[in-house]
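Subject: Protein record for review, amino acid sequence with backbone structure tokens
Category: Structural biology, sequence-to-fold work with a learned token vocabulary.
Format: Residues in single-letter code; tokens as whole numbers, each standing for a residue.
Body of memo: The sequence and its backbone structure tokens, given next.
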Amino acid sequence: MASSARIVSRRSKLLQGVAVVLIAATLAGCASSRKELTTGSIPRMSKPVEEMNSTELASAGENIGKAYEKNPKDPKIGMSYANVLRMSGRNAQALAVMQRVAIANPTDRDVLAAYGKAQAAAGQLEQALATIGRAQTPDRPDWRLKSAEGAILDQLGRANEARGRYRDALDIQPNEPSILSNLGMSYVLAGDLKTAETYLRSASQQATADSRVRQNLALVVGLQGRFDEAEQIARRELSQQQADANVAYLRSMLSQQNSWKQLADNGKPAIENGTN
């Protein structure tokens, strides 16, 4: 059991950034930042927060923070503010905001989903799983929540359960690129890069796939030693600045290839068995 825990810990450290981004992307539709940032009393943003640089995020955080101070119980303002904080790396503050909003809106499904996202980003995975479970309703299952549960279960080392959630989500929303991407990354965590590439290529070919899906594909292609191809994928549909940043991140991840190989060789049985 101790050995399994060490394997999961190594895997989590290697993929911390990727896995948290997957959870965030999965839950984005439950409390859509693109919609919430342009409605009601929330300051209007020029672009989605996922596409903002650090300066733009700081400005957005200041503007929405003022609206939050005036009405801290408003669910739309709270979710938008927490999203900006989380994208700025201020996970503890985002969690505090969503906890306050959730207390004020205990039955709001979108609030619970956003609260679960904040918990996951802050590393409270078991609590996030419970919160997202409360947001789900049997009569109206939400594919985003199913996929989010899968992403959290993957981080907990429970791969078989995670993939079950992804397939449940695909039953509700067939060919959804974010689900296919998460499923592909589940196989990355298990060291099965060829299967991962199959799902990620399928995800990237969907009309609604965004750049984050293609960045995951670039990572998996690069991990198999095809860096030129990976860099081409990483640079598609992005500005020069964004592309350079993504390629730099890709290079930093690929610099750990020996660790990835060791993880695939030594960690796969424990991960496949879903142990912690």
Notes: The mean pLDDT is 78. The two ends are 8 Å apart (CA to CA). DSSP finds 16 helices and no strands in the chain. Residues 31 and 271 are 31 Å apart (CA to CA).
